[in-house]
Write a structure and sequence with these properties.
Elements: H1 2-19, H2 25-32, E1 34-37, H3 76-85, E2 89-92, H4 108-123, E3 127-131, H5 151-172, E4 179-182, H6 207-230, E5 240-243, H7 260-263, E6 277-283, E7 288-291, E8 294-297, H8 300-317, E9 325-330, H9 343-346, H10 348-364, E10 368-371, H11 389-400, E11 416-425, E12 432-434, H12 436-440, E13 447-454, E14 460-465, E15 473-476, E16 480-483, E17 485-486, H13 488-492, E18 499-505, H14 508-517, E19 519-524, E20 526-534, E21 553-554, E22 567-571, E23 574-578
Parallel strand pairs: 1-2, 1-10, 2-3, 3-4, 4-5, 5-6, 6-9, 9-10
Antiparallel strand pairs: 7-8, 11-20, 12-19, 13-18, 13-20, 14-17, 14-19, 15-16, 15-18, 21-22, 22-23
Length: 579
Amino acid sequence: MKRVIILSLIAASALSINAQITETATEAVKNMGVGWNLGNTLDAHKNSGKDFSIASYWGQQGVDSETYWGQPVTKPELFAMMKKAGFGAIRVPVTWYNHMDKNGKVDAAWMKRVHQVVDYVLDNDLYCIINVHHDTGADGDNHISWIKAGEDSYNLNKDRFEGLWKQIAEEFKDYGKELIFESYNEMLDKYNSWCFATFAASGQYNATDAASAYKGLNGYAQSFVNVVRASGGNNATRNLVINTYAAANGYGTWNSHLKDPLTKLQMPDGEAGKGHIIFEVHTYPALTKTSGTTEVSRSLYEIKSEVDGMIKVLKDNLVSKGGPVIFGEWGTSNVDKGTGKTDYDVRRELMLQFAEYFVKQTKAAGMGTFFWMGMSDGPLRSIPAFIQPDLAECVTKAYHGSDFAGEYPVVDTAEEYICFEGDKVLNWGDGITIPAAMFAGFSSSAQVVLEYKQEESYNALQLFYGDWASKPSFTVDGKTQYSGDFNPGTYYKTSIGTNHKTSLTFNATTYDQLKKKGLVIHGKGVRIYKITMTDKSSGISNAKAEQTKKTGIYNLAGQRVEKAAGGLYIINGKKVLVR
């Protein structure tokens, strides 16, 4: 009997060893290919707490927080599109404090939703990175992050932080090598310093506080690794990501402390030589510079030199520690003042040239890249379609080669599209965005139809252009014109609890601006259930005149189907989104 037991234990042990992840961090970065961030989604939050020692700071939001920053509820089709476009990995930022109690216990419904989105990614044969995101970061007027780079913060929050990662690690411990954990996002010190610790302090540096900041950050990194490894299963050898202070990349010569976030970051104890740690930094280079009083574009030579210099700094100061590097976020930093326009809008050729060079050079250096959340944005993620298809094509071809044949679907003119569907009480400054590309996909006769409840005695809807610089004029139900502001209770002469369905239309001049800027719908005392764009006069924008009109229901491969179960279909010759 004892022999049987011993043999059984040996067999079980062998199975456990065989089940462990053998892919190294360096191999994982190579196999991930080029990546993209599902930004402003599971990381969205809007709590206003400043004191995390009290219960009200924690757990104030439900799973609908996914839509708080203008993104739709995530669907698996988005990741199928990304896979076909040539992306190999998705970083899924996740904020947790608004879904956990003071003791660190995560709400079951939120963990289930995170798990579901992870499955969406992995089921499409993509690598997935999940992290602890806006639990760190810069403080605002109404909110203070609970995780800070500093010894005091680490000592105060160690148990809570470790408890959070115990729950995440347990939830996913049997998942394979394609799932990677990232410890924390952009962790800042008590001064909210970027670039390096205590940069925002008096004199732009405080040696004592800086040393404490780096020690605290390394403490969080060590706790993260300890907890994940101790949870067993595939977590014993899972590839893990730790960020530098502020996710700073160390490039530049304007201050002697710029490389500190790299040099002060430690390889966690017990991990040296095992090959399962990835280092992460972020970068958002400027494509412009000031010449006198004028802002001008930088030369491509200057931009390339910055990329080359950054890669060298990372090789010398991070890769040399024994792990590969990923740019967990990257893009460009310019938004032109007064217009809200980005580099993609106003200096697109230069941006594409930068993106191509950046991806090619980082690949050659063995470094991974995850573009920050553009390319597909807002309601287009539900179709799904690209809002910046040429950028997506540029990035994936830079990685795979110019002959790579990716798919980059865009919005065709449609009869109807659901921009938002859920349950959201509007508050000032916290609205729902319809991106410019949606208006470009419809004719100027399109309507924006709102379905909502009059939630409070004071109720108001307010419209802004997407740049928040001014308000558009609009007509309600084809009758009365307003300029930016609309009060449903006054207009309909109704009381609290009344449901409404309101149709907004725009004149041609306003609509032209919406095609350039997009629209933000916000307000107070109104609970939004659904926002739809509809234009019954539209068909498919790229339909060829010589094509024979098809009757019945067809999928996008041209195959006739009996029933439209959900998705995009050709119905009686027109492209229709069926939900």
